[in-house]
Amino acid sequence: MKYSGGIFQDFCCHIANIVWWSLSPKGLTSISSRGEKSSGVGDTPKWLEVDYKFDGLDLHWSSSPPPVRGAADKHIGAYFVGEKGNLLCDYSTMQIEMDGQIMKDLPQIPKSITRSTGHQQNFIDAVKSRSQPESNLPYVRQMTLPMHLGLISWRVGRKLEWNPKREKFKGDKEANSWLKRKYRKEYGWI
């Protein structure tokens, strides 16, 4: 975990991007993780389940697909549970279920979220226009911080309460010690 979050961190940033892009979660208050350590020399989880509580939003990460129709057929994806229906989606497909039925003929949904031109094209466009790409550093930091906190919860083996203003765990010295590593000595003259 010193240098990588394993498969969880690799895939979660892609899948969580769908959630952040559409819902912009704010006010993380708690993180609870469970998983199995990989065999061999690695110290990252083989699989991981993480429950996040945000203001007005519960977010669950799972290394395996949710038990809903069509989820097992997707390589990666997000599953949204709403008041009027559910949405299973990835970057190119979506499946809407309402009243237990998968919707076939969907009405045209107004575009409330700017459509992406794709990661590579967006980056090229940002360089040419000297503007920020969609996945700029403040956005990526906000999106990836919960991933790191999920790994810390797994590492210490318990639910953690988070103070989003102070960016510290509440009353947990051990968990807070994982937020920053001890830096090595600066380079000097020989």
Quick take:
It contains four helices and nine strands, in the order αβββββββααββα. It has 190 residues and is an alpha+beta fold. α1 packs across α3.
Describe the structure.
With 190 residues, the protein is α+β, with helices and mostly antiparallel strands. The protein has a domain at 6-63 and 115-175: 2-Layer Sandwich (Dihydrodipicolinate Reductase, domain 2). The protein is 28% helix and 24% strand. It has helices at residues 6-23, 119-129, 137-156, 173-177, and strands at 30-37, 45-54, 57-62, 78-81, 86-89, 94-98, 101-102, 160-163, 168-169. Strands 3-2-1-8-9 form a five-stranded antiparallel β-sheet. A four-stranded antiparallel β-sheet has the order 4-5-6-7. Helix 1 (6-23) crosses helix 3. The relative contact order is 0.17.
What's the arrangement of secondary structure elements?
Blueprint: H1 6-23, E1 30-37, E2 45-54, E3 57-62, E4 78-81, E5 86-89, E6 94-98, E7 101-102, H2 119-129, H3 137-156, E8 160-163, E9 168-169, H4 173-177
Antiparallel strand pairs: 1-2, 1-8, 2-3, 4-5, 5-6, 6-7, 8-9
Keywords, separated by commas or semicolons:
single chain; 190 residues; alpha+beta; Dihydrodipicolinate Reductase, domain 2; 5-stranded antiparallel sheet; 4-stranded antiparallel sheet; 28% helix
Task: Write out the strand line-up for the largest beta sheet, numbering strands in chain order.
Answer: 3-2-1-8-9
Count up the helices: 4
Radius of gyration: 19 Å
Q: Supply the CATH superfamily name of the domain at 6-63 and 115-175.
A: Dihydrodipicolinate Reductase, domain 2
> Residue share in helices?
25-40%
Q: Report the structural category.
A: alpha+beta
Named CATH architecture of the domain at 6-63 and 115-175? 2-Layer Sandwich
